[in-house]
Amino acid sequence: MRDHRKLGRELNLFGSDPLIGAGLPYWLPDGAVVRHCLEEYIRDAERRAGYRHVYSPVLGKRALYEISGHWSHYRDDMFPPMDLGGEQVVLRPSLCPHHAVIYRSRERSYRELPLRIAELGGMYRAEPSGVLGGLSRVRAIQLNDAHIFCTVAQVADEARAALELIGRAYAALGISPSRYRLSLPGKGGKYVDDPQLWRRASAVLNEVLDQAGLAYDAVEGEAAFYGPKIDVQVADSAGRESTLSTVQVDFYQPERFDLRYVGPDGGRHRPVMVHRSVIGSVDRAIAQLIEQHGGAFPAWLAPTQVLVLPVSDAELPQAIGVERRCAELGLRAELAGPERGSLGARIRAGRLVPYQLVIGAREAAGGQVSVRLRDGRRLEALPQAEALARTAALVDARSPSLWNGS
Ligand SMILES: [Zn+2]
Q1: What distance in angstroms lies between residue 95's CA and the mean position of ligand 1's atoms?
Q2: Which SUPFAM superfamilies does the protein's record reference (predicted)?
Q3: Is the CATH number 3.30.930.10 carried by domain 4-293?
């Protein structure tokens, strides 16, 4: 594994500037492509799993976080409030309160449950400057978040489905978890004081982990202030562990926001909130992807997917045609002509690009390309249309393999 900060600079993925501030990286075009593809993947996976997406503002009145409990339990990690026309607004430390308010924006029936509300949204954490670095610890976080509002009887199934969604995403992204952790409350006033609430919620998560057959460590002092959680841990290049994905069971915030649904009996009942994140913060997920793949992203995430390599200037017209055809097929292609050096030098410079299409005199005459894969494999020359259709199909399917099931 390599340090994502170093690779991020070398590959022009992201940067930072003291004038913008520590912990506030910006995304360069190639990094923005990776981020966009990742976000679209997540939205698509969530849509298929029955989530509905919303947008909510990154600011809220201080009163909102007083109700959610953030103000009393989490204030030290929040940015200071801003005075605005006689009231105080804060940059949000989480999306939960906004989604609770969206839930209660109208009356809900048991028929709507489980109601799965998802958002890729900004949140802010006043991290001390000493711990900031690259994309893994930032002050402006883009969170892949969702809240499932459901009945008590539905909680275990929803938590299990969320873990499965996380498993599928890790397979597509080529990320391996370092371990699963059941995060429980510790000592001190950081946690909501309601022993029965903690017992109920922890029992559900225990059951889900056991039934999924996942080995895990129970760790005290790592829970959210309002409830226990399953954390999926990953390790960075230095072996430091951090949490990427979480599934949390929350009986607390539904009470604080007085959330209700009308049951089959016509009575009003309290839903449970399952908080879950598939890839956690987009920033940290991409730091992990950069390190895990050493910059050689799965083809569907790669900033440049196809490198078109005419051997000499004579094949330039064919190469331009291939590049144009790639764009029509939705493939991100780049033409690297002889002005960039010898063919060998251009192949080496493009070593992270999954598909390299070489066009020499013979290929140009026959309307073909010779395909070289990033892993060093060289395939026989193929008709251009066939090579491009095959590449586009693999990329569209977000295939983890570069060619032919391997
Ligand atoms: Zn939440």
Answers
A1: 6
A2: Class II aaRS ABD-related, Class II aaRS and biotin synthetases
A3: yes
